[in-house]
Amino acid sequence: MRVAVLGAGAIGAYVGAAMHRGGTEVHLVARKAHLEAMREHGVRVLSPRGDFTARPHVTDDPAEIGPVDFVFLGLKAHSYPSSGALLEPLLGPDTALVAAQNGIPWWYFHGLSGHPLEGRRVETVDPDGETSRVMAVQRAIGCVVYCSTVIEEPGVIRHLEGTRFSLGEPAGGVSPRCVALSEAMIEGGLKAPVEPNLRDDIWVKLMGNVAFNPLSALTRATMAQMCEHEDTRELVATMMTETLAIARAAGADPQVSVEKRIDGAWRVGHHKTSMLQDLEAGKPLEIDAIIGAVVELAELTGVPAPALRHVHAAIGLLNRTATAVPVG
């Protein structure tokens, strides 16, 4: 098995290092500062499960790698449409794309047999089909990440918690390619269950992301602070309730209560969400897949979602003003 990690940041480099340690042929495609450190010292993982160093092949040129069996996408979803030049050299006839992204994937309605919106494009994450032209939906394997990592310094990944990467086919069921990938990930010390109904997992995780990510950026608050503030906790619960209704109208049935989901977030403690971290780093916010697509699905399915709409409007304006170039 040959695996390329396109976007070997905190999660991508961790997965690549783990799979390489398990015996898989892994190639990492990384940015320059991170790239040079990994070339010189390998990928150093600091983890409560035990530190280790792996030395997979590292490059910034996918043409050096050639076609692989699996491409693990460590990119943010909003960069998918512009990734064609990097992705093309890695694709063979049967190459699968493992989309380890937050939020609603571009393939969401692909393979959703019997649903009125089967085959419908989600414009927010696949505008005018730009993403699906680069990443054919037939290649997609879904991946829900329950793992937290950060780049402590170039080439050094600190693994904070979680090793689960749930895998699944858009069309459901358990495929040989998902099983093969799962086995390779497990050999590397990861948890990689193959879920016959991955959309349920997508929505369980999204219930947290859709509320806590934008609200944390708007308030600069940690997970615990949002849960402990009575009015904000009530807003989170409202957004999660709307999200559950949209999920069920969009062909999924996540089995989790709103209170259980909020309590789980509170136990995470004073953690900054990825969206708040991006805001503080001056990076564009990952709005479209996390909340924009949920609002779009509300419109498509006719589910009222006033709280989600209002927060989406506010975080959209924040993204515009925070990344605007100062005048003068």
TrEMBL record:
A single MF term (Gene Ontology): 2-dehydropantoate 2-reductase activity
Task: Tell me if rRNA-binding is a UniProt keyword of this record.
Answer: no
Q: Which Pfam families match?
A: ApbA (PF02558), ApbA_C (PF08546)
Q: What is its EC number?
A: 1.1.1.169
What are the Ketopantoate reductase N-terminal domain coordinates in residue numbering? Answer: 3-104
**Top EC class, one word:** oxidoreductase
Outline the extent of the Ketopantoate reductase C-terminal domain. 197-316
Looking up InterPro entries in the UniProt record yields:
6-PGluconate_DH-like_C_sf, 6PGD_dom2, KPA_reductase, KPR-Related, KPR_N, NAD(P)-bd_dom_sf
Keyword list, A-Z: Oxidoreductase
Name listed for the protein in its UniProt record: 2-dehydropantoate 2-reductase
Native species of this protein?
Amycolatopsis rhabdoformis
